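Long-time lurker, first post.

We've been arguing in lab meeting about whether zinc ion would sit comfortably in this protein at all. Half the group thinks yes, half thinks no, and nobody has a model to point at. So I'm putting the question to the forum: if I give you the sequence and the SMILES, can you give me back a predicted structure of the complex? Inputs are below. Any interpretation is welcome too.
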Amino acid sequence: MNKTKRAQEEEYTRQSLQKFFAKYPNEDACLREFPANCKACGTYNEKAFESSQRVFDCDNCSTKTWRTAGTIFHGLKYLLPTFALIWTHEDRAILSPYKLSRIFKIAYSTAWETDKKLHNLFEREMENFDTADMVTTAFNPVICKRSNFCTGGEHPDYFEENVQMDPDILDDLDEDQQAVCAALIVKPTGFDVLFEKAGIPIARFSAALGTLNLLGIVKQHLGNKYSLKKNPTVLSRSEKSLLEVFFEYIRNFHGISRKYLQQYVAAFWARYCRKRWSKGSLLKCCMTNAINGSQRVRCIHPGIVQIPFV
Ligand SMILES: [Zn+2]
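Top reply:
Settle the argument with this. Predicted structure of the protein with zinc ion, as tokens:
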């Protein structure tokens, strides 16, 4: 990313934070977003709301209620940093954990945990979305940190050479396999539909599909459906330009490791997919979900990343 662009990005973040502090000048302002109703009987507790108490005893039934319970904010010493991160994210501004720790004078590790918690939330939300597989080599331009998958002394790209499909392999396919490939798309399609599209006898079709599966070119889904795994050679023009926007976004983080690629894809999705993430929806999602930073959402294949259909 060039200097002007970075300066613009920083200025945009500064303005976004300015608006944030106008709305949330202190901890109390954040706490006011949480309902002050008893979790047992629902009675509203005005005193708790007005005095910004995090925990109160119900006047009606005496039950103790923690207002942040069941949200990602529960157990946090300060609400402001997380609120700021959510705010800037919804504003599509960039606020790195490093900057977050500087602004709110919190430990870097705390800022990093906060960031990770949101990433985990995005990843979990993405699971409810329709996704396609993509080989991670497509992301090589922005991957420059070593991850645990790499062996010491080797280039970060090296480890996956065994798990990715060689783009040249498409040329090596026989006629039947090419016919099946032509029928496949990245969205899972039923066996029968594919068979009809491929236009070859059923035995040959099954054999070709099986081979493509073994070669790692197709992916099998539930309900006897198949999809084409994405790799740079099968990207459409709009997908390629979306990838460019993603690279631009990633460059703000000074290179990421392949291990965290999925999380960044999810964060990118949560930033740009307005269909799912309208203004205010992230805060709402954080208010109704409890997730902690150390929770891993799922274990993914190191060479494959899930891409949501936007
Ligand atoms: Zn009550």
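For your lab meeting: The first helix runs from residue 3 to 23. The chain has three domains: 1-27+78-158+234-310, 35-70, 167-228. Whichever side wins, do check it experimentally.
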